[in-house]
Amino acid sequence: MDIVVMRAGAVLVADTAHLAGYWPALLTVTLAAAVAVREVLRRRAAARARRTPVAPPPPDRLTEMSRILATEVAQRRRSEVMLVSARAQLGEAQSQMINRLRSASALRDNETASHTDRVGQMARHLALLAGCDAEFADQLALAAPLHDVGKIGIPDAILLKPGPLTPAEWDVMKTHTTIGAGILMGSGLPLLDLAAEVALCHHERWNGQGYPRALKGPAIPLSGRIVALVDVFDALMSARPYKEPWPLSRALAHITGEAGAHFDPNLVRLFMDQIQDFVAIRERDRDDEAMLGADQALDWEEMASAQVIPLPMR
After folding, report:
1. What is the pLDDT of residues 254-297, one digit of tens each?
2. What pTM value is reported for the model?
3. Which residue among 101, 177, 181, 244 is least crowded, i.e. fewest CB within 10 A of its CB?
4. How many domains does the chain have?
């Protein structure tokens, strides 16, 4: 049943069955409001009688809260500006650290600085083709060149050996992955953590026969799968103490032949679909390695018939 309560001009309609337990509080509020209205009317009547204006009420709570809120908003904006500046400085510091480590590794390894730069550029492009966001791709472009930083800890007699490595020498060479990860991990900085992941995983193989952890398929981090592919491609096309540069057709035959074995087959498909982009990166950034000649032009029939020769990459 609904009832109506009227007190000093205030009206309250309520369902008694639903609000029976709240009557005392509701009546108290209603009566208080009625008293307040009556007091305002009394003051206005008295003011009119004296012909004096009603004094303005003191600043209400809402005005005070608005002032406090405006102050907090201004402080937050200043904090956000400082945070953006600090992040920019941190990013610059990480980039400088990455570049110094790259320079140090270039002094120890036979691979040129241009090779590591190309690996970074190619890794970024392949990451975008694989659907990664631009932020991750940009971070990978900075982290990928440190994939072989662990070679700092490999003796020259093994690192620069012109001939094949013995099994014992291979065991030593393989430690460059864990050495590199050990150098880079533990900083708490996202960029260096990504670089550590790349250093540790770029010699894992899709079929689980890689090193150092014999990870298989999707268990290999995407960063490691991407760098594994572009690193091998650029290395095949480059001169090394233990090999001559390969023609493009032979390098591509090797890449396609290793899809599903060494490399993520989906990444190989994306790579081959846009092979002209990766060749263009090499063309833009060639160093003293052998120049691409006419025999390295895209010859798909030759590529299809070329023999795939497993090549251990150091």
Report:
1. 999 999 999 999 999 999 999 999 999 998 876 444 444 434 43
2. 0.65
3. 244
4. 2
